[in-house]
Write a structure and sequence with these properties.
Elements lengths: L1 E5 L13 E5 L19 E2 L9 E3 L7 E7 L2 E5 L2 E3 L2 E2 L2 E2 L11 E9 L10 E3 L6 E4 L8 E4 L7 E4 L8 E9 L15 E4 L2
Length: 195
């Protein structure tokens, strides 16, 4: 599940009451209570929020696969990484770059099947102040999450890529850009892992 909110405090995903701009739920990929067939590719992951920001297959990439009974009896979308520039990639019209959306909170619930090099559940790259989460970085069980304009630009997320473990990552970004895409508030963002 990936939930993105704008200017909303970091509650649990189930109690987000306002500011919801995207809600991708692997257990309800059609966003209507029906399910794709187990093992079938999903070309459109429907947004459960009222915003209608569906995630669609990125051109030239592989579709994720719908798999039943994976996390606490719930279905999921299984993404795979093939190479640095090929894998299961979906995109939405939600733009989380700080020059477009200053304040945003992203909740991510996921489980790794295996470890691969630089496996990223979500991200946006503006060339300077990126917003991303790489749950398994450099073929390790540790990940990184971006958090702002001061080097090193990201923080380690220890144990975020342990295979078989259910994880929750919350990223809260304060990204008021002051003078250029890589200039914003120091210590304005927070990353919470499993808490």
């Amino acid at each position: 599940m990936i939930v993105v909110t704008e200017t909303c405090p970091p509650p649990t995903p189930g109690s987000v009451a306002s500011g919801l701009v995207l809600w991708l739920d692997g257990s309800d990929a059609n966003a209507d209570g029906t399910s794709p067939t187990d093992g079938n590719p999903v070309l459109i992951w429907k947004d459960r929020s009222i915003a209608g920001n569906d995630a669609t297959l990125h051109v030239g990439q592989n579709a994720p696969v719908f798999v039943t009974n994976q996390i606490n009896g719930k279905s999921v979308l299984r993404f795979s990484r093939v190479a640095d520039n090929l894998g299961s990639v979906l995109k939405t019209d939600v733009d989380i770059r700080p020059t477009i959306t200053e304040d945003v909170t992203v909740f991510t619930v996921y489980k790794h099947a295996s470890i691969g090099d630089n496996m990223a559940p979500w991200g946006s790259d503006d060339g300077n102040w990126d917003r991303f989460f790489i749950s398994a970085f450099s073929s390790t069980v540790d990940g990184v999450a971006s958090f702002g304009p001061a080097p090193p630009y990201y923080t380690p997320v220890v144990g975020s890529g342990v295979p078989g473990s259910i994880r929750l990552l919350t990223a809260v970004y304060d990204g008021k850009v002051l003078a250029g895409s890589n200039s914003g508030p120091v210590d304005g963002s927070s990353i919470y892992f499993n808490g």
